[in-house]
Amino acid sequence: MKILIAGDSWGCGEWNIDPTKGCNHKGLEQYLKDDKHDVKNISYGGLSFYGILEELNYENEKYDYVFVFVTDANRGIEPNKFWIKNYTYEDYQFRWDTNVKSFVESLDILDIGPVFLLGGLTKCYDRHVENTKIKIAIPSIFELIIPGSKHYDMCFQDYLFKLDENNVPKEMVTNIWQQMKIFDELFKNTIMYPDGNHPNREGHYKIYQVLKDKYLHA
Predict the structure, then answer these.
(1) How many domains in the chain?
(2) Residue 167: inside a domain, yes or no?
């Protein structure tokens, strides 16, 4: 099979505890290559939805499968524009979902082969892919590799340094810290070691097994 992998740092594999040394193991890419698939990986650390789409737009070939690691839907918002006075938790959730849907709609117009989502820092729901050709292969990698885990609603960690609790409703602040607590617990799991930010090779093997069983079996 001819396979394309796209995404942020999660798509790169198991990271060294020193990020300047890159990955210790290529993760999903390596497992697919070990199965003799023709694999190209255009994942890069720190990519936003816009960055992932930009890399995909460079592709002028067609693939049998395109697997996309879905990153933090908030990533890429300018810090000075992230927090909006009097926004409720539901307002931020609406913006989050809108960003995911816009990303999926942009994926849907690509002519590179069937696209399958792998829910990374963003969990994927059926509502995100309605009226598109895009499929969800794994709704939540966290829930796959950490059985019984609770997935958070949204990521806020990149913007906490700009949070002014005086301009944010008290209930909103409480919800933010609840989300951060869930996030912190997930990243303490040993399957996120050695660096504590990305699934390791064991986690990637579980991703690979799901994709193989669903789509790549003989």
Answers:
(1) 1
(2) no
Contacts of 127 (CB under 8 A, 6+ apart): 97, 101
Answer whether residue 42 is part of any domain: yes
Domain that holds residue 69: 2-79+95-147+193-216
Alpha carbons 169 and 143: distance in angstroms, whole number: 30
> Using one digit for the tens of pLDDT, what is the confidence trace for 1-52?
999 999 999 999 999 999 999 999 999 999 999 999 999 999 999 999 999 9
Q: What is the pTM of this model?
A: 0.96
Q: For residues 24 and 49, what is the distance between their CA atoms, to the nearest angstrom? A: 25
Local structure of residue 161 (DSSP, 8 states): G
87 in a domain, yes or no? no
> What CATH number has the domain bearing residue 119?
3.40.50.1110
Amino acid sitting at position 49 = F
Q: Residue 134: CB partners within 8 Å, gap ≥ 6?
A: 104, 107, 108, 115, 116, 117
Q: Give the span between the Cα atoms of 125 and 121, in whole angstroms.
A: 13
What is each CA distance from 162 to 82, 159, 184, in whole angstroms?
8, 6, 19
